[in-house]
Amino acid sequence: MGKKRYDLSVDIWSTGCIMVEMANRKPLFQGDSEVDQIFKIFKGKGTPDNTTWPGIEDFPDFKKSFPKWKANEHL
Q1: DSSP string, 47-60
Q2: Hey, what domains does the chain have and what are their CATH numbers?
Q3: pTM listed for this prediction
Q4: What does each C-alpha distance from 41 to 27, 34, 71, 74 come to in angstroms?
Q5: For residue range 10-49, what is the model confidence (pLDDT) as tens digits?
């Protein structure tokens, strides 16, 4: 989303994705571009907003025009 610095939460997210991918032997959110990758995550986890991710709407690459998906409870 264009944030210049990140914290431990990004590492935890990445580790979780890697663990699921190792268990399933396939990518968790397999996109063919950056935008496709982000949209696949949004489709599965829901499009973030300031309620679910405080400050996300201020990030340089976040667009309020992104499609709005609700979280899939099975992911």
Answers
A1: ---TTTSTTGGGST
A2: 1-75 (1.10.510.10)
A3: 0.81
A4: 12, 11, 9, 13
A5: 899 999 999 999 999 999 999 999 999 999 999 999 999 9
| The token pair that represents 6 in the structure block | 């990140």
CA distance 69 to 9: 22
CA 25 – CA 7 distance, rounded (Å): 27
Contact between 56 and 50 under an 8 Å Cβ cutoff? The reply is yes
Residue type, 22: M
Question: CA separation (Å) from 68 to 21, 29, 42, 63?
Answer: 26, 17, 8, 11
